[in-house]
Amino acid sequence: MKRIIPFLVFIVVLNSCTSEFKPATFETLSVEAPFEAEISATYSKAKGNNELSNSINSNVENAIIETLNTPENKKDLNTVLKSFNTEYLTFKKEFSEVSEPVWELHIETELAYQSEDVITIAISTYEFKGGAHGNDKVKLLNLDAKTGKTLKINDFIKDIDGFTKLAKTHFIKSLETNKKNLTIEDFFFGKPFQLPENIGFSEEGLILIFNVYEVASYDLGYTEFMIPFEDAQPFLEIN
Question: Do 64 and 6 fall into the same domain?
């Protein structure tokens, strides 16, 4: 089985909370149903059956599904897994003469950060339906810790233009330590620097991750760097 989230070095941070606010607590669940395809799903779920936990769990499940190459009408994770297995069985039946490796679908989430304001959950998925290689994708999901609602970048970063300039500086700085002697010209396909779709919180600062193909060729894989809190703080709406 392909190992996923090998590069995430986040540490969960539980800041002190007031007596009036009870933060969500999480458990890790695994899907253990038998499938002919190689399918696994291990994900974080907020405990309890209240408005906060239900909102968190709904948004986490939706975010997982959004990372997959699945029809838009599949809004339930168990249905998605069963559908993937059915598609594999149909393929095997229709192309029985073709010798292809077993299809794979692996899902893993990690509670990366939690404070009174924000929860960041890292979602990693891997799909393989034959061919040269599978499809890896990472999503950093930021949630309002009090409501469970999904946070967009404008909800926690002010002055996007200023933050983009800061991020570019740290991106270039991160390249100075790489062993491949890469420069910013090796990224963005000739276009100006841009923020990644994935920006999330960690203990030390903001983590920025470009997915495979997002700003560079497949060979370069994921591109990840960090902006320390002391530098990012002037641009943050929340902590």
Answer: yes
